[in-house]
Automatic annotation (TrEMBL):
Pathway: Phospholipid metabolism; phosphatidylglycerol biosynthesis; phosphatidylglycerol from CDP-diacylglycerol: step 1/2; Lipid metabolism
Membrane topology term: Multi-pass membrane protein
Protein name: CDP-diacylglycerol--glycerol-3-phosphate 3-phosphatidyltransferase
UniProt family annotation: Belongs to the CDP-alcohol phosphatidyltransferase class-I family.
Catalytic activity, reaction form: a CDP-1,2-diacyl-sn-glycerol + sn-glycerol 3-phosphate = a 1,2-diacyl-sn-glycero-3-phospho-(1'-sn-glycero-3'-phosphate) + CMP + H(+)
E.C. code: 2.7.8.5
Organism: Gordoniibacillus kamchatkensis
Length: 193
């Protein structure tokens, strides 16, 4: 297994660690700044999430620059991204930090695009990530970090950045999904069953 695929696997293995820190309660007082409060659990989970999310660009860069692109990598990379984002978003719903409808929209889009990718593979085609897919990923990471850290530092001035970022995340996720289907409509031949 090459270095790029090992980095991708590391991202997958970080998911349970993030869940552990998000969903357990350490017996420590929260960090307080004026009216703002955050638990050590959230700080640790956010840091691990940032590390995991940053490996997405790193593994892709290594795979391309060292000509290490493999079929395993093509399968694992999007799977690792979806696991990371979906697991954290479901946990944030559990914590009451994001609306369930937003998470349902995002996970539904991910299933739909994964299905489209499977159809493409059966047809011998590879669907590369497009511009809107990359924008979607950036908005998801930004919104998730803002939600994980309780909208800090914007909370100190009463600006709902995390909420706005969540809406932008939902909108770009849906738009990028529609974009994938429009650009690959030739894969959807409903006349042949």
């Amino acid at each position: 297994m090459n270095l790029a695929n090992r980095i991708t696997l590391a991202r997958i293995f970080l998911v349970p660690l993030i869940m552990f820190f998000l969903l357990i309660k350490l017996p420590l007082p929260p960090v307080r700044i004026q009216e703002f409060s955050i638990t050590y659990n959230q700080i640790i989970a956010a840091l691990i999430f940032i590390i995991a999310a940053s490996t997405d660009s790193l593994d892709g860069y290594i795979a391309r620059s060292r000509k290490m692109i493999t079929n395993l990598g093509k399968l694992l990379d999007p799977l690792a991204d979806k696991l990371l984002v979906s697991a954290v978003l479901v946990s944030l719903v559990e914590m009451g930090k994001v609306d369930a409808w937003i998470v349902i929209v995002i996970i539904s889009r991910e299933f739909a695009v994964t299905g489209l990718r499977q159809i493409a593979l059966l047809e011998g085609k590879v669907m590369a990530a497009g511009k809107w897919g990359k924008i979607k990923t950036a908005t998801q990471i930004t919104a998730i970090i803002a939600l994980l850290i309780n909208n800090f530092p914007f909370e100190l001035v009463g600006f709902p950045f995390a909420t706005i970022a969540s809406w932008v995340m939902a909108a770009t996720t849906m738009y990028s999904g529609v974009d994938y289907f429009v650009k690959n409509k030739d894969l959807l031949d409903f006349t042949n069953g």
